[in-house]
Design a protein that fits this description.
The protein is built from ten helices and ten strands. By secondary structure, it is of the alpha+beta class. Strands 1, 2, 3, 4, 5 and 6 form a six-stranded mixed beta sheet that branches. It has a four-stranded antiparallel beta sheet with strand order 8-9-7-10, with helices on one face. A hairpin with a 2-residue loop joins strand 5 and strand 6. The longest helix is centred in the middle third of the chain and has 14 residues. The relative contact order is 0.18. The model has no long low-confidence stretch (mean pLDDT about 95).
Length: about 280
């Protein structure tokens, strides 16, 4: 019997620059350094007589059963003839990535489902189709684990592998990407440089410390507690910098060793005992 089990990894935006909208798509031009981390959802796929999609786990309650990235992906694959209309699937998703957190769980689920359902050649030929119709973030999960997104449509692999540890804090706040983007007027000119493509680890870290997330102020204005979380992360010993990932509401502090991250996690859990706090690592 056909059966697949795989991990669908979360992502962290180490910085995020937001530019003007494209007139045709209505999407903002963006620039970011993105790393996949060892936090993941678990997905199981079985062939079945009819489609059945079920979400379980700690963060499953906030997922719509009627319309989600899994249902959207199956619909698109069939509509374009990439998979057989008559082949049905029973798909079980154990949600371990917080929903509405900026960690990319929904896009990751769609991307990893595509990668495990179709041939590699079909994936290469249809990457832009998936990003356009399901979510622009999908491209972040199709290639390498650590990438520099030069603009909305172009991603490149980092030359130097980053070994970062993260203290991640999710305050159980639903931060809608659409709402956060709608509250800002972005006219930033995206930078033109090759630091993230070719720079050493030391140079990249130094540069990251000078970056920011252009959505962070908007997230803080909606959820003031985020400012306090970021400050407490920043004050932790050996924390390189703290930031909101994506459109939030998850916050993270960056560390260079597991020991320093573990010590930081203990202190953060004491500060915010009601929040979801974990240590993550780049993969």
């Amino acid at each position: 019997m056909f059966k697949k089990k795989f991990k669908s990894f979360a992502k962290i935006n180490l910085f995020l620059n937001v530019g003007k909208k494209f007139n045709k798509t209505g999407l903002h031009n963006i620039q970011s350094l993105v790393c996949l981390i060892n936090l993941f959802d678990e997905i199981k796929i079985y062939k079945s007589k009819k489609d059945k999609i079920k979400f379980t786990g700690k963060f499953s309650d906030n997922v719509s059963l009627k319309k989600n990235t899994i249902t959207d992906t199956l619909s698109l694959l069939r509509k374009r003839g990439i998979i057989d209309h008559n082949t049905k699937y029973n798909i079980l998703v154990k949600k371990k990535i917080p929903v509405f957190s900026g960690l990319g769980g929904g896009s990751s689920n769609a991307a990893f489902l595509v990668k495990n359902l179709i041939l590699k050649k079909k994936l290469v030929n249809n990457k832009s189709l998936f990003s356009k119709n399901i979510g622009s973030d999908l491209k972040l999960f199709f290639g390498h684990n650590q990438i520099f997104q030069k603009n909305l449509n172009t991603v490149v692999k980092l030359k130097s592998k980053l070994d970062f540890y993260f203290v991640i804090v999710y305050p159980y706040l639903k931060s809608s990407t659409k709402e956060i983007y709608s509250k800002g007027k972005f006219f930033s000119k995206l930078k033109t440089n090759t630091i993230y493509e070719n720079g050493s680890k030391k140079i990249i870290i130094n540069n990251l410390q000078q970056e920011e997330n252009h959505l962070e102020k908007i997230v803080i204005s909606k959820f003031p507690i985020i400012k306090k979380v970021l400050l407490e992360l920043r004050l932790l010993k050996k924390c390189q910098f703290s930031r909101v990932t994506g459109s939030g509401s998850a916050c993270f502090g960056v560390f260079l060793t597991k020991k320093s991250a573990d010590l930081g996690l203990k202190k953060i859990r004491k500060k915010f005992p009601k929040f979801w706090c974990v240590v993550g690592k780049t993969i």
